[in-house]
Recover the amino acids of this structure.
């Protein structure tokens, strides 16, 4: 089992640098989580929007019941969906999400996107996605400050140990830091060689935030969604630069991509179900790329973002 480094957060807590992402884990989620724990994973990154928190919680419970881990060994992560940004809606939905997981607190709880949408009752639609019950993307009037203060309250009452933001850009993060009573501990954003986000990472880290990269394999995560931008883009696994570096080190292209991220000080949350690949992803921290190799991979940057709402909704220009 690989020795996974820890990242220390600005509140003194630590998280493993390599975790397991639960986006699109829809088949035998409980079994997938259980097997990942057996393989050595200790951080699980979930969200209301993924629609699998109850199933993931069942995998956690089984692992704890079987004596594989204790609750305190795990870092359980979830996120506030856009339809719950009004301050009075935050605590109730978080309590519901905790109930689905079968736990008493989240180790990290994020604001998923910097956009507030009209409330949709989970009893009427779960996961509710971006559209209301009329099939329309409709924003609500909740401000980021209102929502963040409600998220801070989760720490006050013990429902979250650390809090963070996801899909925030520099100016929004700068503004939030002006009024935050509890500073975000982590920023989670899309990062891969086609979207290196060098300046954003530097800024966040300079402010004491840890940064978690999602979709580290670039277009690979989005091809199965049949998104044209991902289908038409050269796959990073097949890129000559990545293949050459992988061959030099005797590693897989996936391990090179993951190591490129972790050597930049980023946490990563890759998702695989194959036992061999589970082990390989954890072992990606067991070798080092040369500084010029990191620079070479960063040089592949195209500022190409795959998780961009206007591409699949036609509205909500969050990253404009």
């Amino acid at each position: 089992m690989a020795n996974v480094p820890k990242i220390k957060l600005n509140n003194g807590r630590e998280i493993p640098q390599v975790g397991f992402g639960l986006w699109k884990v829809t088949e035998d989620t409980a079994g997938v989580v259980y097997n990942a724990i057996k393989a050595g994973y200790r951080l699980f990154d979930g969200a209301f929007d993924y629609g699998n928190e109850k199933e993931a919680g069942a995998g956690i419970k089984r692992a704890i019941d079987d004596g594989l881990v204790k609750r305190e060994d795990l870092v359980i992560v979830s996120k506030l969906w856009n339809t719950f940004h009004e301050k009075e809606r935050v605590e109730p939905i978080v309590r519901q999400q905790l109930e689905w997981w079968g736990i008493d607190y989240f180790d990290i709880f994020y604001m998923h996107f910097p956009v507030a949408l009209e409330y949709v009752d989970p009893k009427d639609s779960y996961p509710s996605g971006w559209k209301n019950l009329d099939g329309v993307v409709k924003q609500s009037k909740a401000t980021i400050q209102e929502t963040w203060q409600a998220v801070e309250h989760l720490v006050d009452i013990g429902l979250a140990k650390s809090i963070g933001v996801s899909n925030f850009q520099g100016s929004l993060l700068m503004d939030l830091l002006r009024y935050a009573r509890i500073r975000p501990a982590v920023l989670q954003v899309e990062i891969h060689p086609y979207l290196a986000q060098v300046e954003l990472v530097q800024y966040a880290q300079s402010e004491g935030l840890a940064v978690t990269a999602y979709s580290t394999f670039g277009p690979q995560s989005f091809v199965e969604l049949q998104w044209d931008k991902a289908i038409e883009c050269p796959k990073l696994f097949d890129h000559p630069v990545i293949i050459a570096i992988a061959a030099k080190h005797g590693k897989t292209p996936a391990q090179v991509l993951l190591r490129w991220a972790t050597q930049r000080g980023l946490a990563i949350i890759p998702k695989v179900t194959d036992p061999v690949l589970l082990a390989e992803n954890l072992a990606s921290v067991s070798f080092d790329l040369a500084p010029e190799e990191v620079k070479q991979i960063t040089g592949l940057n195209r500022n190409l973002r795959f998780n961009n709402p206007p591409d699949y909704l036609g509205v909500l220009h969050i990253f404009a």
Q: What stands out?
A: The radius of gyration is 19 Å. The mean pLDDT is 97. The longest helix spans residues 87-101. The CA atoms of residues 83 and 210 lie 26 Å apart.
